[in-house]
Specification:
The complex is a heterodimer.
Chain A: H1 11-17, H2 19-38, H3 43-53, H4 56-67, H5 72-83, H6 85-94, H7 105-110, H8 114-121, H9 129-153, H10 159-165, H11 168-183, H12 185-204, H13 209-227, H14 239-242
Helix pairs in contact in A: 1-9, 2-3, 2-4, 2-9, 3-9, 4-5, 6-8, 11-12, 12-13
Chain B: H1 5-26, H2 33-51, H3 63-80, H4 84-100
Chain lengths: 243, 104
């Protein structure tokens, strides 16, 4: 097997791997800062949202709910539902992460965003703690910095630039997925199946909105675990070695 | 609500706890093969659900621009791989569509 030649991921690899996330986060965070300002949330609170919560979609949602006068409890419950998908990602990361120092796991856990998880989980090499620390730390800095920047100067950006940069994070997800789909027809099936189910659930609105993604992700991964027989097709080859 | 500190702390807790508990409790533990298979499929199913249908709403009111952007990424990614080039191509393609349709 070729795992012998694979290098171990370090701090620097994590920082480099974070660059596409930074490109996506800065405009997304700036949009958050700008929106916060437009509904009269203070700069301090805007900063604290990004520093303490660090979950883009739920931060936008919170602003939208604040704008329509929702109560704090309602926003917190909605946030919980929306962010529950990270529990799945955290569990999936746990299955692959090389743990060097157990006491630092809570720090790594704080930065398990859609983006950091997607980048880390699809690397051929197993993610290590220094790798995760750099990947998440750089992403986090971009998110917090972008939020403040957006609050202060966001309105200076032309609408066309702001709108076109909104595609960046989706583009990154696609660019992560395409090479994996190229390698394995099963991966393509898993991703397209999950997307399709999510689209159907989102369209019919049977579930609270945060649950669509969780349901699609769990259902299709479970179906895959049961029905895909070829173990080597998807997932890790180096797993046996590291154990 | 003028002071959002209570809200922010509440949101932090309900975001952090789901990220924390599985990672801390499941790391370095033996996982049954079927569960492990399930967990290793999660990245792909999560990515599918993150992209579809959300990507079409990336350019509000103009899903065609997002579609061109995502299409550009897919093509560049297929032939060149990597992340930076596909992402930059996608931003450029989306910008061109939006700009030519009159968004300034």
């Amino acid at each position: 097997m070729e795992y012998v030649s694979k290098k171990r991921l370090g701090f620097k690899d994590g920082a480099v791997a974070a660059l596409p996330i930074v490109i996506g986060y800065i405009p997304a965070a700036m949009a958050f800062g700008l929106l916060a300002k437009s509904i009269q949330v203070s700069l301090t609170d805007t900063f604290l949202f990004s520093v303490m919560v660090f979950a883009g979609a739920s931060q936008y949602m919170a602003l939208n709910l604040i704008a329509v006068g929702a109560a704090a409890g309602e926003i917190i419950v909605a946030t919980f539902l929306l962010n529950l998908r990270h529990a799945l990602m955290s569990a999936s990361l746990a299955a692959r992460l090389e743990v060097q120092k157990k006491s630092l796991l809570p720090l790594i856990a704080f930065g398990v965003t859609d983006e950091a998880f997607s980048v880390a989980a699809t690397r051929e090499e197993r993610p290590t703690m220094p790798f995760m620390f750099a990947l998440e730390g750089v992403s986090y800095s971009a998110w917090v910095g972008g939020s403040v920047l957006g609050y202060l100067v966001g309105s200076a950006l032309p609408a066309s630039v702001r709108a076109s940069m909104g595609i960046a994070l989706y583009a990154m997800f696609v660019a992560i997925l395409v090479p994996e789909m190229k390698k394995s027809v099963y991966v393509a099936g898993l991703a397209l199946g999950s997307g399709l189910i999510n689209a159907v659930l989102s369209y019919f609105k049977w579930l609270p909105s945060g649950w669509n993604m969780v349901a699609a992700t769990v259902l299709v991964a479970a179906a895959g675990a049961f029905f895909i027989k070829d173990e080597k097709e998807v997932g890790e080859q180096e797993e046996e070695v590291a154990a | 609500m003028k002071n959002y500190l209570v809200l922010i702390i509440g949101m932090m807790l309900v975001t952090y706890i789901p990220r924390l508990v599985p990672l801390v409790t499941m790391s370095q533990k033996p996982i049954p093969p079927l569960v492990k298979k399930f967990l290793l499929y999660i990245p792909y199913t999560a990515l599918g659900a993150l992209i579809i249908p959300g990507a079409l709403q990336a350019t509000p009111g103009l899903p065609a621009a997002a579609l061109v952007g995502v299409g550009a990424t897919a093509v560049v990614s297929w032939f060149k791989g990597g992340l930076m080039l596909p992402v930059m191509s996608s931003i450029a393609a989306t910008f061109l569509v939006l700009y030519s349709l009159g968004t300034r």
